[in-house]
């Protein structure tokens, strides 16, 4: 059975996603953070209010126990701290420590530079079309869950 353009598109998308993340991980290696840990820091930095551990796990797309181990190591590095939630003793809010801010700025600077490189030669119209296609596919995926 020959490959269809839809099949090629799916393979290309997966390959691009893996490659983009691998290149970013390679560029961030000097900061001493694993991919999973810098991803948690970036997600944390994008919340307006400190999220609960459950909210952060949903945002990052990992299971609770996996996030708990990542938070343990980030806490040991002095980058995050857990704070009890008054209304729910079992819940914990995750706070960024001040020492994490310069690190997050470095991560974002490196990530932005890579993004600029990767989008070279892609014009606004092409990007808009690609985003519409991806949005439609994501919406179809949402219907499945």
TrEMBL record:
<dbReference type="InterPro" id="IPR036388">
    <property type="entry name" value="WH-like_DNA-bd_sf"/>
</dbReference>
<dbReference type="GO" id="GO:0006950">
    <property type="term" value="P:response to stress"/>
</dbReference>
<keyword id="KW-0805">Transcription regulation</keyword>
<dbReference type="InterPro" id="IPR036390">
    <property type="entry name" value="WH_DNA-bd_sf"/>
</dbReference>
<protein>
    <submittedName>
        <fullName>MarR family transcriptional regulator</fullName>
    </submittedName>
</protein>
<dbReference type="GO" id="GO:0003700">
    <property type="term" value="F:DNA-binding transcription factor activity"/>
</dbReference>
<keyword id="KW-0238">DNA-binding</keyword>
<dbReference type="InterPro" id="IPR039422">
    <property type="entry name" value="MarR/SlyA-like"/>
</dbReference>
<dbReference type="Pfam" id="PF12802">
    <property type="entry name" value="MarR_2"/>
</dbReference>
<feature type="domain" description="HTH marR-type">
    <location>
        <begin position="6"/>
        <end position="139"/>
    </location>
</feature>
<dbReference type="InterPro" id="IPR000835">
    <property type="entry name" value="HTH_MarR-typ"/>
</dbReference>
<dbReference type="GO" id="GO:0003677">
    <property type="term" value="F:DNA binding"/>
</dbReference>
<keyword id="KW-0804">Transcription</keyword>
């Amino acid at each position: 059975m020959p490959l269809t353009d839809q099949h090629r598109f799916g393979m290309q998308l997966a390959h691009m996603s893996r490659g983009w993340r691998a290149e970013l991980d390679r560029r961030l290696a000097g900061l001493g953070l694993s991919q999973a840990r810098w991803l948690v820091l970036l997600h944390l930095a994008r919340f307006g209010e400190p999220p609960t551990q459950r909210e952060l796990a949903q945002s990052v797309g990992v299971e609770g126990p996996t996030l708990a181990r990542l938070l343990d190591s980030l806490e040991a590095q002095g980058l995050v701290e857990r704070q009890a939630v008054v209304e729910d003793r079992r819940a914990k809010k995750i706070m960024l420590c001040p020492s994490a801010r310069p690190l997050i700025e470095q991560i974002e600077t490196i990530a932005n530079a890579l993004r600029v490189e990767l989008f070279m030669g892609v014009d606004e119209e092409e990007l808009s079309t690609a985003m519409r296609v991806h949005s439609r596919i994501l919406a179809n995926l949402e219907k499945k869950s």
